[in-house]
Design a protein that fits this description.
Largest sheet: 3 strands, mixed
Strand order of the largest sheet: 2-1-6
Shape: elongated
Strand content: 25-35%
Helix content: 25-40%
Distance between the termini: 148 Å
Number of helices: 11
Structural class: alpha+beta
Length: 371
């Protein structure tokens, strides 16, 4: 009986899969080489590879798109291989049970190189520096994030030196980790100083009223910059001035108007307007700047300064030589003009203002005004 079994094993067709061979999840025992080749090609049409750098950075790609082709001969040989020495052992076919779940793949050199270049670029991530900024009145810190650089040559080597699964293959992409040039510690001191300023219980006393800037207000007064020594905490003068202007507007007594009457350039009457008062913003700005710079709180009492009344000048001119001269002088003082007037008839009045100044012009005009 043993002789019969051995003889059957010796005559088993070499181009057929061994009886208990499996390809993936299906049995292919006794299948011819050509049938196995068709199945392998069908698997390979949808075979995917996941190029993985990390859990949150990976790319799925069809193996065929990488320039790969299944090596049918090598893969099928693993299913049909039944060596002579094994055939000589009675009932050895029971123990020869190849189970193929991966394929041998060959790559077109040009296509795999191009694909490696493309996906090395996709998978490469530059490091992200830590950040610290003021946004909508809030201090916002962002942590640094390391980057990773993928070499096209190393990726190509990784892709061509592994065996691919019939359905799915995870490819661990070799990469170099690159640290951020500005880690979170770069802003640590500035962040601590900014948080100290924002937390200060600043109170401004204005005419007995206690004004307490909010944390958002105080944050908006800060600016994050850099100098030669690194990150630096500065003052956002625009935001600080806007806050002080709003405060000033609530505590300002408007000044009146001083009415001045002039006749032919001579003042003939004056009615004084009432003086106003407002917060001394310059001093208050300086005190707040000291707090921001030093991080040390201090008592703030808003001082007031007088506001002079505005002056409104009402000008009139007489029909005289003096009136003409006063009018010409006023026009030359408020405009970029040079005037010289000579009456050719009548009383022979003349008037001039800035008439001795030279003016460069394209043409020279003479204006005769008859009064």
């Amino acid at each position: 009986m043993y002789a019969l079994i051995v003889s059957l094993q010796l005559t088993y067709p070499p181009d057929r899969a061994v009886p208990f061979a499996r390809l993936g999840s299906e049995s292919v025992g006794y299948k011819r080489f050509d049938d196995i080749a068709v199945k392998l090609n069908n698997y390979f049409l949808t075979a995917k590879a996941s190029l993985r750098v990390s859990d949150d950075r990976q790319v799925s790609v069809a193996v065929r798109d990488l320039g790969g082709e299944v090596d049918v001969d090598a893969t099928a040989r693993r299913l049909t291989d039944y060596p002579l020495w094994s055939r000589l052992i009675p009932f050895s076919f029971v123990f020869v049970q190849p189970h193929v779940v991966s394929t041998d793949v060959t790559f077109d050199p040009g296509r795999i190189s191009a694909a490696s270049e493309r996906y090395a670029t996709v998978l490469t991530v530059q490091p992200r520096d830590a950040g610290l900024k003021i946004t909508d009145g809030r201090l916002v810190a962002t942590a640094d994030s390391p980057g990773s650089v993928v070499s096209a040559d190393e990726l190509e080597a990784a892709l061509t030196n592994i065996r691919y699964g019939l359905v799915y293959t995870m490819v661990t992409v070799p990469h170099k980790t690159v640290s951020a040039s500005k880690p979170s510690t770069y802003f640590a001191q500035v962040q601590s100083r900014a948080e100290t300023v924002i937390a200060l219980p600043i109170t401004i006393t204005v005419e007995g009223e206690q004004v307490r800037p909010s944390a958002s207000d105080k944050a908006s007064w800060l600016s994050i910059g850099e100098d030669q020594s690194g990150a630096a905490l500065g003052i956002n003068q625009t935001a600080l001035d806007a806050y002080l202007s709003a405060l000033q507007a609530k505590h300002t007594t408007p000044a009146g108007q001083t009415q001045v009457t002039r006749r032919d350039g001579q003042e003939t009457a004056r009615v004084e307007g009432a003086a106003g008062r407002t917060i001394d913003v310059a001093t208050l700005r300086e005190r707040l700047s000291d707090i921001i710079t030093s991080g040390q709180n201090q008592s703030l009492v808003a001082a007031f300064v007088p506001v002079a009344p505005t002056v409104v000048v009402n000008k009139t001119y007489s029909a005289t030589q003096a009136g003409l001269q006063a009018y010409v002088s006023d026009q030359a003082s408020t405009r970029n003009v040079r005037i010289s007037v000579q009456q050719l008839g009548g009383n022979g009045w003349s008037a001039a203002a800035r008439d001795t100044e030279s003016t460069v012009s394209a043409s020279t005009y003479k204006l005769f005004v008859a009064l």
